[in-house]
Inverse folding.
């Protein structure tokens, strides 16, 4: 049996998240439709993450088992023929039997895009949050450092999560500006339900109330969801990078040199 | 009577061009709907250009006359409330009676975006041409210099144009790359029907046949539409900038210092 790792990119606008759902279109369902066309069977597909409705992915990993000997470059081409325009397969490679797109993952990086201008951007309607009030990216970048380190992030987890261990490590957090586009980038070993979106809501609160890194760190320490900001909308969020430490560089910045 | 100049930005995907058409949605029609809501009357609106179906605008100028004394910032806000998400009013200002968005225009800049990668980009489906064959931006930038100067651009004009004078001046032409996005930028005192899209088709031909600036200049001089490239698709094209020499800087790079 070949174990294939496919890397895809998708625009989440039309989808009710990655995971298959009854009566709602999901990325996984559409990928499985294409897999059925290419491999001749409706193979089970495992994803690296559940993304919410409207969330995008610059890089998303999924795996499947097949007996078919289609060369990897041909899998990429054939899948892209059968997928709709808002999903693209970027890469296909064979991985070991023990690889799991979710459990082998050593970290993830998310981006959150904010169009920061009095007037909306017609090209970013579903791709960035429109925030008309001026944001000081340098001030927010300083505040975002309050997320760093290993903490119980219960204050940054929406109700409805079944995960019991809320301890996560954040390796990197930054806010930068290019023209009117403000981007929040955050890398960690794992993320709780809605964690990045609550971080963004908290940064927007920090902008309003001029909170710094110490105040952000205090909100993390207190562990009270009510003290953190609102959950920012899904359409600004991108799963940007999925790290597999044994394959290439790691989320904490260390790199395997063979 | 106040004479108002509105600057708008729009994503052209849903529209059959700027100009009002029977049985097809146009940008002008949707703008006039919003004008009617804001000004209480269906006022005639004059645009700076006819853009084709699917073409976008980062900056597009239009004018209208009104008796209503709504302050300009309020016009911007009210128009944006009544316009759909894919059209935005960026600016409103009063101009003299003699100003005309088309005839006062001293030049325009267009951009053409190409997603140059073997795999399509789900975020740029309707915003950039997907071109899978490798492009050498430096080579194309050199070739694009063959467009510069004052010439009869008949080789770069689609049939169906009613304009008789085909002489235009190109001040600037460049090709640059940012990652997998290749952008052609061109500024001139005016453009013929499909001129920029034929320039792009010719540059893609130049990439295939390794043509340089001299060969591009020769295609311009020969004046034979059949010797230029195909008309590139509309969805990569942006009207980027409309110049009014008496108001600010000019398309040829000279600037009025008051």
């Amino acid at each position: 049996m070949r174990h294939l790792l496919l890397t895809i990119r998708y625009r989440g606008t039309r989808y009710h998240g990655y995971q298959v759902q009854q009566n709602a279109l999901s990325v996984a369902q559409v990928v499985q439709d294409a897999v059925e066309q290419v491999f001749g069977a409706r193979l089970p597909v495992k994803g690296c993450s559940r993304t919410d409705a409207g969330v995008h992915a610059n890089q998303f990993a999924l795996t499947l088992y097949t007996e078919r000997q289609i060369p990897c470059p041909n899998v990429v081409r054939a899948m892209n023929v059968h997928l709709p325009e808002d999903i693209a397969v970027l890469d296909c490679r064979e991985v070991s039997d023990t690889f799991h797109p979710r459990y082998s993952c050593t970290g993830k990086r998310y981006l959150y895009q904010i169009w920061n201008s009095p007037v909306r951007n017609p090209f970013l309607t579903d791709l960035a949050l429109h925030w008309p009030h001026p944001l000081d990216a340098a001030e927010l970048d300083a505040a975002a450092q309050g997320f760093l380190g290993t903490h119980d992030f219960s204050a940054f987890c929406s109700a409805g999560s079944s995960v019991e261990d809320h301890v996560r490590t954040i390796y990197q957090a930054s806010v930068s500006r290019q023209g009117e586009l403000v981007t929040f980038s955050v890398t960690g070993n794992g993320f709780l339900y809605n964690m990045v979106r609550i971080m963004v809501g908290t940064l927007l609160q920090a902008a309003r109330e001029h909170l710094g890194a110490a105040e952000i760190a205090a909100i993390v320490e207190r562990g009270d969801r009510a003290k953190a900001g609102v959950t920012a909308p899904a359409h600004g969020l991108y799963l940007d990078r999925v790290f597999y430490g044994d394959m290439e560089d790691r989320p904490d910045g260390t790199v395997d040199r063979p």
User: Anything to note?
Assistant: The longest strand of chain B covers residues 167-178. The radius of gyration of chain B is 19 Å.
